[in-house]
Design brief:
It is a single chain. This protein is α+β, with helices and mostly antiparallel strands. The chain has four helices and six strands; from the N terminus they run αββββαββαα. The protein has helices at 12-21, 59-68, 94-108, 111-116, and strands at 25-30, 33-38, 41-45, 52-56, 73-74, 84-88. The protein has a six-stranded antiparallel beta sheet. Helix 1 (12-21) packs across helix 3. It starts with 11 loop residues before the first helix and ends in a 10-residue tail after the last helix.
Amino acid sequence: MSKSRSRSRVTSDDVRRIALALPQTVEKVAWSMPTFRVAGKMFVTVPDDETSFAVRCPKVERDELVLAEPDKFWIAAHEAGSAWVRVRLAALDADELGDILADSWRQAAPPGLLEEHPELGVATTE
């Protein structure tokens, strides 16, 4: 299936650049892959193959995302019981990548940090 609008290809380097631009984010290698954290809480991982990344996502929303856009979102078997979803880089444009990373960051950031950065919105809670 071809989409009418063109997408500029995003890469794992874009994930790193955008994640590190979010307030108080640090990169830490865990499980032999880059992970990105705010206040010690992980909000993004980039597996070795660098074709996808994982982000925090409430389970109810995650299941809806996967059903609605299975070419973009999927659940790794070892993450089935957790509130994480995988995202295929090839299915995104830069704006969507930024929105997804910011949403995951909001879920991990402490309330005080969210208050300091109202431009990033508020955390979604369920």
